[in-house]
Design a protein that fits this description.
This protein is mainly beta. The protein contains 5 helices and 40 strands. The chain has a domain of 79 residues. Helix 4 packs across helix 5.
């Protein structure tokens, strides 16, 4: 895997991943249900139940702490110009193949490898009985009352191969017997100051601190206490206030529980967990020859590493954590609508629809560092990280030693080691060399983790919430050969996590900071649909093809109709055509603008210096009344500039940026789909249906800046800041140019092009 931050289109260098294939996955699921209804006077009772036995059998892939890759992933990057960089990720990759630390530089970011792959066999059961009473209170009022019992069994692995990390199982006494080597990131035994070896058959307990095996020693099989009993009531009514059958008022409310997929806060997310699979990452290996090796030739004693370790050893592992008490996700849904018959064959509906999601799944990183408080932040407002300058006085270039990381910033502020901000600075500046040196001597990130000896703690939790509120209206008219309908929704969906792996979670310790419009929010949605039975064309078709016909003499086997009337063949070919279509207008979905550091020497990826690792490192800052961009199209970028990059500037140092999640929206879309249908009756019991369909029939190009299929790309990530305001839209000929060849706020792709398809269906 080659990652980069080049200014060229895409901004991510090159990526080559051998992946976790071959991969096996089967999902045999058995489902049984039955319903029974009974009418008793004014009551119609319905009873029923369903039973589900679900299974998932698969070889572990990239899930949780595991990468699924036993071949190894090498990350080569020029992010922030890290170490001695050529400015291009692929060039750094080639350069490091021939050089080592004594030969002129290093841009290797990390090496990661899993010890093995395993096949897992997950199981769970669900039973859901229900009862409902439709009670016709009066001829004009019907009340619906119901109750569903969601009886959920927990996920569990058939052969007890899953392990969960639990905070209460983390031993401080074991943690006191290990340290992270600040130079290499290796786990070192205390006392003795020797590397902790990697023993796959019997891993050292200090590597696995806090892990418990599901289904063993009193731990439940799914590592969670499952709540089997989840009552879900429903209530509703339908009322005709005038008794004329022209007005209907309906309302309803219900609770709906969700068992969850196997990638949420349950044992399914523990697939690939240690100790059966160890996934370790070596940060900043000094050249390819030093991967897994820490002999004297692999370290530079002049930079302070006076005790290089000669034996290969273990690195902190990432672990996955699920809650020990599962409270299942559920939604509350409600609606109130009025349906009214109007003059001239119109029917209109006006409705308010709402819902609230509770205990939704979210992925958080529990071993994240605390952000620096505003009172201790050494950066002034609007003052970002400065990574390079001609005087070698940039923020990450001048500090003390690895044991005394005192920073002298470009603004003249000195941050001593007793200031908590020094830790965040050391983490934010990972990979940056001090002035006049080739390698960074900052202590590595894992040195500062709240849970010593561990890397990232990926915690699946059912703690997120969502809300949806909408006004919906429809108008429909049917008369003669034409049916027309118009539907409009004005809605807003808000949440603090749209799915388990929301890619924009900057601060895991502050869930409320992630609250914003949902990733799928569409404020306005209009649909116009129509079906038109075309006039009979048999007569016109006969006139075009055959001219006027004469009256038959009654002796022909295929008699001609009277003058002016189409023949049976012409009616068969020309009558019964139907034209239909849907026209849609929809506002664009939200997306986040990501701070992707700066190839121009401004900004860092982990701008707050907290080592979150599960989402966006940070966002940019926003300015009011920005000047327009210098130009809307430029060489080297695909498509036009759709929004204004001058709205964004580099974030203040040691903050997450104030743009926040889902700050912008994709362009709106207007689309026309049409179809033409003809039914040819061949016989009383057989017919041939012809259909021609066109999607985006006018071939209207409609761009997207952000497509969730691609995730965060150069189109929504800022890789260049410049000018006196550190703007993402800086343009100075001969100086910093953040527009030419840059993909920020340019299209990443377009919606569907014109597609035409034909179909024939024979029914008999």
């Amino acid at each position: 895997m080659l990652g980069g931050n080049n200014q060229e289109y895409g901004g991510t260098g090159f990526t080559v991943d051998p992946s976790y294939t071959p991969w096996e996955h089967t999902n045999p699921t058995y489902n049984f249900r039955d319903d029974l209804s009974k009418a008793l006077g004014k009551h119609t009772l319905r009873f029923g139940a369903q039973y589900v036995l679900a299974q998932k059998n698969e070889t572990n892939g990239a899930l949780g702490a595991a990468t699924g890759d036993v071949q190894g992933l090498l990350a080569v990057s020029n992010v922030n110009g890290g170490f001695y960089s050529t400015g291009n990720a692929f060039a750094n990759f080639l350069y490091n193949g021939a050089q080592n630390i004594t030969g002129g530089g290093n841009a290797l970011q990390s090496y990661t490898q899993d010890s093995t792959q395993l096949k897992y066999y997950f199981r769970y059961q669900i039973g859901e009985p229900f009862v409902q009473d439709d009670w016709r209170v009066t001829p004009r009022l019907t009340v619906n009352l119901g109750l569903r019992l969601s009886l959920f069994g927990p996920y569990h692995e058939k052969y007890l191969r899953t392990f969960n990390w639990e905070p209460q199982a983390f031993s401080q006494s074991l943690a006191a017997q290990v340290k992270v080597d600040p130079y290499t990131g290796q786990l070192i035994s205390l006392p003795g100051n020797q590397p902790i070896p990697i023993d796959l058959a019997s891993p050292d307990p200090r590597i696995l601190n806090g892990l418990v095996q599901c289904g063993v020693n009193g731990i439940t099989a799914g590592c969670t206490k499952s709540y089997w009993f989840n009552p879900a009531p429903r209530v509703g009514f339908a009322w005709d206030p005038q008794g004329k059958g022209k007005t209907s008022i309906r309302a309803g409310y219900g609770i709906f529980f969700e068992h969850g997929t196997s990638d949420e806060a349950n044992a399914g997310s523990l697939e690939g967990s240690a100790p059966y699979i160890l996934s370790m990452q070596q940060p900043f290996p000094q050249g390819y020859a030093c991967i897994g090796n820490y002999g004297p030739s692999c370290r530079n004693a002049a930079e302070g590493d006076t005790n290089p370790h000669s034996l290969p050893g273990a690195f902190p592992i990432n672990v996955t954590s699920i809650p020990t008490n599962t409270r299942y996700s559920y939604s509350q849904q409600w609606s109130l609508s009025v349906q009214q018959e109007l003059p001239r064959n119109f029917v209109a509906t006006f409705a308010y629809v709402g819902s609230k999601g509770t205990r939704l799944s979210v992925l958080r990183q529990l071993n994240q560092l605390q952000p620096v408080s505003p009172a201790l932040n050494p950066f002034a407002p609007h003052e970002p990280f400065i990574l390079t300058d001609t005087n070698q006085t940039a923020d990450c270039q001048n500090y003390g030693t690895i044991t005394n990381p005192t920073f002298k910033l470009a603004n003249g502020v000195v941050v001593t080691s007793n200031n908590p901000a020094a830790v965040n600075l050391a983490v934010a500046c990972q990979g940056q060399p001090p002035a006049g040196t080739l390698v960074s001597v900052l202590p590595l990130t894992n040195t500062f983790r709240p849970y010593p000896g561990l890397g990232e703690i990926l915690s699946l939790q059912n703690v997120a919430d969502s809300s949806y509120n909408a006004f919906q209206t429809t108008v429909r008219r049917t008369q003669g050969p034409l049916t027309v309908g118009v539907a409009y929704s004005f809605s807003h969906s808000i949440d603090d996590s749209s799915d388990r792996t929301d890619p924009t979670f900057a601060n895991s310790l502050d869930l409320a900071s992630n609250k914003a419009s949902s990733n799928f929010d569409q404020r306005h949605l209009v649909n116009v649909s129509y079906v038109y039975t075309l006039p009979n064309f048999g007569r016109a078709l006969q006139g075009v093809l055959m001219g006027p016909s004469e009256t038959g003499d009654g002796n022909d086997k295929n008699p001609q109709p009277s003058s002016g009337q189409p023949s049976r063949l012409m009616r068969w070919l020309g009558d019964g055509w139907e034209w239909s279509g849907i026209t849609t207008y929809q506002s664009g979905t939200p997306f986040s603008v990501i701070n992707n550091a700066g190839s121009s020497g401004i900004g860092v990826l982990d701008n707050a210096g907290v080592a979150n690792g599960v989402g966006a490192g940070s966002y940019p800052d926003v300015v009011k009344n920005p000047p327009p961009a210098a130009f809307t199209t430029n060489p080297g970028s695909f498509g036009p500039l759709l929004l204004n990059p001058n709205e964004f500037v580099a974030p203040r140092g040691l903050t997450f940026g104030d743009a926040g999640r889902n700050f912008l929206n994709n362009p709106s879309r207007l689309n026309f789909d049409m179809s033409l249908l003809k039914l040819f009756v061949i016989h009383e019991n057989s017919a041939l249906e012809f259909r021609a369909e066109a999607f985006n029939i006018f071939n209207h190009t409609q761009f997207r800046i952000y497509d969730p299929y691609f995730g965060n790309t150069g189109s929504n990530s800022i890789s260049c800041y410049g000018g006196p305001n550190y703007s993402a839209g800086a343009y100075a000929p001969g100086g910093v140019n953040c527009l030419t060849g840059n993909s920020f706020l340019h299209p990443v792709d377009a919606h569907r092009p014109r597609t035409i398809q034909f179909g024939l269906k024979f029914s008999f």
